[in-house]
Design goal:
The protein is an alpha/beta fold. It contains eleven helices and seven strands. The chain has a single domain (2-264), classed as Vaccinia Virus protein VP39 (Rossmann fold).
């Protein structure tokens, strides 16, 4: 467990770098906190982890999650927000709590590091927890509607672990709406040969081809979302726009990476 947690923890620096990079360029999202943390931490990334194309992809992915969550929060003013596997991400600052109860959840070591840069308040708390045991759910007083975002998390969990996690969510909350990005099985296989997370020591990941595999009697697949909407691609110019659209937003990309929404029925 310790070795697994330490290696997965290191992956949080890859999206942190990506968000800081695009924010500095004025693309997709503004994330001054990512810029600040990246500058202070000075964590050394190498190889594919520092690819500008990966940074663009992660910046767009973050913007897509932000937009979805803003829409859900506006429609559900009394919902509780769970950002599972939050890493060092500043989504709570980019989106704002809007007086919703918001919980950022990650491994204990990550939360300890996170508290160096983020402050809790009435509407916002950070919880140490592992999605594979869910004991942290017992600390939540809220039982109504949960809006759950899992960005860059599912590929470290088996289908059974994901099923157990969603079952625990459904047992605790009356209503659940979940947005989650997933590798395909092909992407998981290819990751053994070419994946930026290998640069920080993670070697075992998992994929899902059929979103219905996570369904149960009271938890159902709703729809697939676009990971790279055209409006964000259009923020790029010239050759960069052509390369990104061809390699990172085309049909081949969809064979590797998907974005699924689920709900408690």
């Amino acid at each position: 467990m310790g070795e697994y947690m330490n290696s997965v923890n290191k992956t949080l620096y890859i999206p942190l770098y990506g968000k800081a990079y695009v924010s500095q360029k004025g693309l997709f999202l503004e994330d001054k906190k990512a810029e600040q943390i990246w500058a202070q931490e000075g964590f050394s990334l190498k190889g594919k982890s520092k690819s500008k194309w990966l940074a663009y992809y992660m910046g767009i992915r973050a913007a897509v999650f932000d937009e979805w969550l803003k829409e859900q929060m506006a429609a559900e003013p009394n919902a509780t927000v769970l950002h599972v596997g939050c890493g060092m991400d500043s989504r709570v600052l980019r989106v704002g709590t809007r007086n919703h109860k918001w919980y950022d959840v990650d491994f204990d070591q990550v939360i300890t590091e996170r508290k160096r840069y983020y402050d809790e308040c009435v509407d916002y708390r950070m919880l140490a927890g592992d999605v594979r045991d869910c004991n942290w759910l017992k600390n939540l007083q809220e039982h109504g509607h949960a809006l759950v975002v899992m960005e860059g998390v599912s590929m470290y969990l088996t289908a059974q672990e994901l099923q157990e996690f969603t079952a625990n969510l459904c047992a605790h909350f009356e209503k659940v709406t979940l947005l989650m990005d997933c590798y395909t099985v092909l992407a998981a296989k290819l990751s053994k040969y070419k994946n930026p997370i290998k640069d920080v020591g993670v070697h075992e990941v998992y994929g899902i081809d059929e979103p219905e595999v996570l369904q149960s009697d009271n938890f159902v697949y709703v729809k697939e979302h676009a990971m790279t909407p055209q409006k964000y691609i259009d923020e790029l110019k010239g050759v960069e726009k052509f390369i990104f659209k061809t390699l990172y937003a085309g049909g081949f990309s969809k064979k590797l990476y998907r974005l699924f929404e689920y709900k408690k029925a």
